[in-house]
Amino acid sequence: MSKAQGQAVGTGAGVPVTIITPTVGRVVWFTPHPEQDNRFDKTQPLAAIVAYVWHNRMVNLTVVEQDGISHAATSVYLVQPDETAPWRAAFCTWMPYQVGQAERTQRAEAALGQSRGVGQAQATAGGEFARKT
């Protein structure tokens, strides 16, 4: 069984991560069905490229097997950060780097939103940002 199966896949850093929107061409990690392709090392995911996006949690992939040969995988469940991977099914996940980037972006946007809120509060209270009429 793959490390990710039946476990939360996200970083678990306590920061809720918004859904990472899949787009064609992005790289993900693919975990085949546990009873499929027993010839491969199950301790590592397979590299895959998003070929088509059904929605934020389902994609079609071009999967590169460990011997370098590629094949298609259609209607694959895309596990979003901090979601639990399906236990007995093929799925794909974002790479840890991509999850980290999404978390950093979310924190930066939240900090920017808070600083904007401070400026708006000062403007409303007649602070230095108040519009002069």
Structure description:
The protein has 133 residues and is of the alpha+beta class. The protein has a domain at 27-95. It has one helix at residues 96-124; strands spanning 27-31, 46-55, 58-64, 70-79, 91-93. Strand 3 (58-64) and strand 4 form a beta hairpin. The radius of gyration is 20 Å and the shape is elongated. 18% of the residues are buried.
Offer a quick outline of the entry:
The protein has one helix at residues 96-124, and strands at 27-31, 46-55, 58-64, 70-79, 91-93. The protein has 133 residues and is of the alpha+beta class.
Strand order of the biggest β-sheet: 1-2-3-4-5
Low-confidence stretches: 1-12, 127-133
What separation lies between the terminal Cα atoms?
68 Å
The percentage of residues in β strands lies in 25-35%
In DSSP terms, counting alpha (H) and pi (I) runs of 4 or more, how many helices? 1
Choose one word for the global shape: elongated
Order of helices and strands: EEEEEH
**Fraction of residues in helix:** 10-25%
Structural class: alpha+beta
The strand count comes to 5
For the report, how would you describe the main beta sheet?
Answer: 5 strands, mixed, barrel
Radius of gyration in whole Å, from Cα? 20 Å
Query: If you average the pLDDT, what whole number results?
Result: 80
